[in-house]
Give the backbone structure.
Amino acid sequence: MSISSKWMNCLRTACLVSAVSLVFAGCQSQATAPSEDKTVQDNKSTEAASGTVTSKLKLADALTPMGTSNGVYYEIFVRSFYDTNGDGIGDLNGVTAKLDYLQELGVKHLWLMPINPSPSYHGYDVTDYYGINPDYGTMDDFKHLLAEAHKRDIKIVMDFVVNHTSSEHPWFKESMKGKDNPKRDWYMWAEDLKLDPAIRGAWGQQAWHERDGKHYLGVFWEGMPDLHIDNAEVRAEIKKAAQFWLKLGVDGFRLDAAKHVYEDFYNTSQNPDVVQNNQKWWQEFRQAVQEVNPEAYLVGEVWDSPAVIGPFLKDGLHSAFNFDMAKRMISMVQDEKDSDIGSMMSRIYTFYSKQSDGKFVDAPFLTNHDQNRVMSELQGNVNHAKMAASVLLTLPGNPFIYYGEEIGMLGLKPDERLREPMKWTADEKSAGMTTWEPASSNKTVTPIEQQMKDPSSLWNHYKKLIAYRNSDKVLQQGGIQSYKTNISEVAGYYRATKEDARLVLHNLSGKEQQIQLSADTAAVLETLVFSSVDGAALKDGACTLPPYSTIVLAP
Ligand SMILES: [Ca+2]
Ligand SMILES: [Ca+2]
């Protein structure tokens, strides 16, 4: 969902959600989550065999069971990406035209923001779950995109927006006609359901909207009426629509507003039965998805703390975006001070692992289409942007990149400014450039064309990090464990599978740093296998880290 009230929602959650999230929010390794239990870590199958580097380094935290990661994801706002028919609006053929570009960057999956017909520019209010937005092309264009992507081993996940429809959806137009209409109960009408329309939404907003003296639910705004998910016909219809796209060859869904499906009113949103209803719905949805494609991937937007996200990961979502980590990564690179991400992550993962029976896959990212772009948050500091990318791309799970992030595109709210035309070339009028809105935030940004030719560009930094990640199984599949140096400008963490381990070190500062590894680490991790810049060195456990650099050590 693209509504700014979500920020309020986050604030509210920060206040309401109990001790569990407060523990996660903290970074001190002394804290223990009340819900944490030892079964996951005590499980024998998680232990490294004796004699492996992982056992020598005592990396039990990194062995928390989790699902398989499958490469870097890239979020595309089709309208702003690439235009092939000269109308200034990005289109599906434009995504197809840029698959080679995406392959060169090293991404393995695309997340397409909504491509269904919609009256809005962003598409998060759908009027037809089986159609393609005519601005973006035709169903044949989409099939062509799928085929061309799959040829390149690139998978496509599409945004699936089913908490609500557009108020212009034919279903809602029927529902408005009155109590006797067969579609009446597809939406929530307060008077029919004997609910009080004065009750505010979960973040204190007006949730019910008046129409002909009756009130329907629309938790985001009146143009987005919430579907009544307890209605069996609605559930069946949503599952049918998902199966339709899977049968076409779509590889999964990004599930918008996943925590808002069940009633999120001010007085009920944290009730255990509401939490459970949401959980059960996504489990039911996943079963329907897996009937068509057992490999399909579901990543959900649950804009909340890990304590709230956890239950969604049990046989429902494979992944949920890690909003807390996004904030922490950005502040860490901005402050140039280690904030022990490894410790925070391994504590969250212990909780997720237990919730998901060891199957969750984390989905880290820096910013998305609902947030100020990371380069704007970093005030245009390219070194900080490089470090943010280095952290993101060396974490466990499936990292997500937002289009344009790889060249440092800028954008501060309102939302339209976060979703400006992709800057392929300096000439805004050249072929392919989208012009549906002015690229007013990005006048000074160096275009892709130029950055690709410059070895020291942010683009080449992304490419280098992604290529290394793709080449290293431990970086892709390993868990994470805290590693602290005695220099606060250097952040580090171990990454490990049962058999193998890495140490990732980031020099967050503009000064060269020298680190002496502890004797046991130095004895095991003897090889400098990756360095983001020239000039790094490792000798007898002494590491030299050039300014703003990332290195990876291996046995
Ligand atoms: Ca076009
Ligand atoms: Ca809802």
About this structure: The chain has three domains: 36-65+473-554, 73-163+231-471, 170-217. Residues 83-85, 87, 89, 91 surround calcium ion (ligand 1) (CB under 6 Å).
